[in-house]
Design goal:
The chain has 232 residues and is α/β, with parallel strands linked by helices. The protein has one domain: 3-Layer(aba) Sandwich (Rossmann fold). The protein is built from seven helices and nine strands, in the order αβαβααβαβαβαββββ. α6 links the parallel β4 and β5. α2 crosses α3. The longest helix is centred in the first third of the chain and has 18 residues. The two termini are 25 Å apart.
Length: 232
C-alpha cells in the first residue's frame, strides 16, 4: 500500500496517463535548466517513480561518481518520506534498490559505442536489463546530433526510453513553446522537453514540448527540498 500511495501521489503523473509511462520505447525526454537549478533532482524523482513500479532504471552519470549519485537517490527518497510523514521506509528502500544500476563515464571518454558495449555486457550476462535510461551530463554542443541519432537506434533496439539532463546557456530562455538555443537543432529527436526556471519563491516547471494533462495544476520544485510539487 505504501508503494502504491507514493506512485499515486507523484506529480509527474501529468506527463502521461496513470497506466502509462510518458515516454515510449526508443523515445527521448530532457530536463533543461541552467547549472545548479535542479535537473538531477528532477530526474532522480522520475527514476524513483519507475523504481516503485518495479521497472529497471539505468542511471548514467558523466559528471559525478557512483557514490555521489547514490547520495542523490538517498536524499530525495528521505525528503519524500518526510514530506508525506512516512514511517518504516527502510524495507521499501531495499526492495527498489535491485532495480537500479548506476554507470559512470568521463565526459571526454563517453561515446554511444562504448555505452552499447557496456549495455551488452550487462544484458548478455543477465545482470541487468534496463527499462528506463537516464543520462546526466552529456554536453549538447557540436556533434551531439550524431550521438543522439546513434543512441536512439540503440534505445529502439534495446526497447527503453531515455531521459537527459541538459544544461542550457545563461542567455537561453525557459518558456512554454519557446525552444532554448541549446536544443533547438535537435528538438525533433525529443518527445518531451521540460524546463526549470527559478522564480522568487520556487522553481517553475514548464513543459516546453510534449503532451500533458491540460487540467492538471502547474508543477514546481520546492527550493528547500527540490521535490516536485503541484501548485494548488
Amino acid at each position: 500500500m505504501l508503494k502504491q500511495d507514493l506512485i499515486l501521489r507523484n506529480p509527474l503523473r501529468i506527463l502521461g496517463k496513470q497506466e502509462e509511462e510518458p515516454l515510449k520505447e526508443g523515445a527521448f525526454g530532457a530536463v533543461l535548466a541552467k547549472a545548479g537549478v535542479g535537473k538531477t533532482a528532477f530526474l532522480v524523482q522520475l527514476a524513483l517513480d519507475n523504481l516503485l513500479k518495479g521497472r529497471n532504471v539505468l542511471h548514467i552519470s558523466l559528471t559525478q561518481p557512483v557514490r555521489k549519485v547514490c547520495l542523490w537517490y538517498e536524499e530525495v527518497f528521505h525528503n519524500i518520506a518526510n514530506e508525506y510523514n512516512l514511517k518504516n521506509t527502510s524495507e521499501l528502500w531495499e526492495t527498489i534498490l535491485p532495480h537500479r544500476f548506476i554507470m559512470t563515464f568521463r565526459v571526454d571518454d563517453f561515446s554511444v559505442s562504448k555505452l552499447e558495449e557496456r549495455l551488452n555486457d550487462l544484458t548478455e550476462q543477465g545482470i541487468f536489463f534496463p527499462q528506463l535510461v537516464i543520462i546526466d551530463g552529456l554536453p549538447f554542443g557540436t556533434g551531439v546530433r550524431e550521438a543522439l541519432t546513434e543512441l536512439k537506434i540503440v534505445a529502439r533496439e534495446q526497447r527503453f526510453p531515455v531521459w537527459f539532463a541538459v544544461k542550457v546557456q545563461p542567455e537561453d530562455d525557459i518558456e512554454h513553446g519557446s525552444l532554448p538555443e541549446t536544443v533547438e537543432d535537435v528538438s525533433d529527436l525529443f518527445q518531451f522537453l521540460i524546463g526549470l526556471k527559478p522564480s522568487k519563491k520556487e522553481i517553475n516547471i514548464t513543459v516546453i514540448k510534449g503532451d500533458v494533462d491540460e487540467n492538471a495544476p502547474p508543477m514546481f520544485l520546492d527550493p528547500a527540498t527540490l521535490l516536485i510539487k503541484n501548485r494548488e
